[in-house]
Task: inverse folding
């Protein structure tokens, strides 16, 4: 996208470190010296000290500044260039006799692991980690504490490859991309059975046909899983014009520190931003300011991995997000837009725990959750797959998420009297119009105008342009996203 470099440069100028909107340096709130430090897997300082404070308002537990990552340290699995380690690893990977080729989703998980989103996990799961994630939605860290991990992060192999690796007694294998280029080495490996039906049933609560992630990544996957310690040769890049948005947890923590954030609240989207979302995010910041924070920063964090066929592709969503900031719907001084590299499961209350846990590692101490997070329609029946309220209820009880403040949001809808998005008022429910994601996409496909004030003009134009760009012979199906290069 031609305007992105200039756009990001302008955002950097707008969001000067240590300044709020009035140009006054913000102060910390309720700071207590805990002495914790964020360090990388190689013992290198990668973030900022953790400063924690508490206050009470409306029954919400508050923590000031950046919380420590799960396990107490942010795991980074990319080999350093210093000392020649990266070059040596590349040579070793090229010489290893056994190679496992990663598909698109597996490489997205490699990206997730390499940057520490799944800290304290240090590689694709071994069997004990897989079983803990599957049965407890948590894994036990080196310190003995349970940390949340609700979705398995695993790598599959076929029976023939499993037999060959075991026959040689190999303990290290190379991981390669779709062009057979080495991207990582997996060491101290363990191979175990891939019980697909159990995995699907426990992750989604159903084995009904038509689950998007299952069809993409599990049905045709190997019958064995291979886990081990991961070392990635170099940072994962996609070369799609969006890599500048793919900030790692360490980079996000540095950005929040640069902006002197005393609270970070995260909001995940896999759809274009409309004014109802914006109302929710700006109201959340207002609430945090009222609670005593001086400079809460929004992490607007769209999902960047695999999505189902009728979702708007990432490149178009990012263009639309740019317009939301350019037109002032969200304040660029207090908003960080970045891409979350995880694939999407559509596993409802199970998956939303993963979405929240990963943002802890990025430094967020507040997570906004709404109706039916990570949900979808039932693949074979005319109903939602999950109860719309279960996601936020599960987050409030989930093991390992106790230090994260969960913010259930109020329902926003289009107020036909005021002709704008507003929070739903049950006392005059007939005045409100609910526009679902499906309805929004239908309007854009048919080039029908939404109600005034539903979405910023530039953002709506981008959405219409996307649907105009679809190839008619593909039946308006989603264009394939670029894979990592």
Result:
């Amino acid at each position: 996208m031609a305007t992105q470099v200039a756009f990001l440069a302008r955002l950097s100028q707008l969001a000067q470190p240590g300044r709020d909107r009035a140009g006054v340096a913000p102060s910390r709130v309720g700071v207590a010296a805990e002495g914790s430090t964020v360090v990388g897997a190689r013992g290198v300082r990668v973030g900022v000290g953790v400063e924690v404070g508490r206050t009470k308002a409306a029954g919400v537990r508050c923590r000031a500044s950046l919380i420590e990552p799960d396990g107490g340290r942010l795991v980074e699995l990319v080999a350093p260039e210093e000392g020649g380690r990266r070059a040596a690893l590349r040579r070793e990977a090229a010489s290893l006799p056994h190679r496992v080729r990663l598909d698109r989703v597996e490489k997205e998980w490699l990206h997730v692991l390499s940057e520490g989103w799944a800290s304290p996990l240090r590689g694709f799961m071994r069997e004990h980690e897989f079983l803990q994630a599957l049965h407890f939605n948590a894994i036990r860290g080196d310190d003995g504490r349970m940390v949340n991990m609700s979705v398995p992060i695993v790598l599959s192999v076929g029976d023939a490859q499993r037999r060959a690796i075991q026959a040689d007694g190999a303990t290290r294998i190379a991981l390669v991309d779709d062009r057979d280029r080495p991207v990582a080495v997996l060491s101290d490996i363990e191979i175990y059975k891939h019980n697909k039906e159990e995995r699907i049933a426990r992750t989604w609560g159903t084995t009904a046909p038509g689950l998007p992630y299952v069809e993409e990544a599990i049905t045709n996957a190997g019958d064995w899983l291979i886990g081990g310690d991961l070392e990635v040769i170099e940072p994962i890049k996609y070369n799609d014009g969006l890599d500048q948005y793919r900030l790692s947890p360490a980079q996000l923590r540095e950005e929040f520190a640069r902006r002197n954030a005393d609270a970070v609240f995260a909001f995940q989207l896999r759809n274009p931003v409309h004014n109802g979302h914006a109302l929710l995010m700006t109201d959340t910041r207002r609430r945090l300011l009222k609670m005593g924070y001086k400079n809460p920063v929004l992490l607007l964090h769209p999902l960047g991995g695999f999505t189902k066929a009728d979702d708007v592709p990432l490149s178009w969503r990012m263009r639309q997000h740019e317009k939301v900031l350019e037109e002032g719907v969200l304040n660029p001084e207090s908003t960080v837009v970045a891409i979350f590299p995880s694939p999407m499961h559509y596993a409802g209350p199970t998956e939303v725990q993963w979405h929240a846990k990963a943002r802890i590692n990025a430094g967020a101490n507040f997570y906004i959750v709404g109706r039916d997070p990570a949900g979808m329609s039932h693949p074979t029946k005319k109903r939602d797959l999950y109860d719309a309220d279960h996601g936020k209820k599960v987050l409030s009880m989930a093991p390992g998420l106790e230090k994260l403040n969960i913010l259930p949001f109020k329902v926003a809808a289009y107020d036909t009297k005021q002709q704008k998005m507003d929070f739903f008022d049950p006392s005059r429910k007939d005045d409100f119009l609910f526009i679902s994601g499906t309805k929004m996409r239908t309007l854009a496909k048919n080039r029908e105008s939404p109600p005034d004030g539903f979405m910023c003009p530039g953002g709506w134009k981008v959405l219409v342009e996307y649907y105009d760009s679809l190839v008619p012979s593909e039946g308006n199906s989603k264009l394939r996203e670029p894979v990592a290069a």
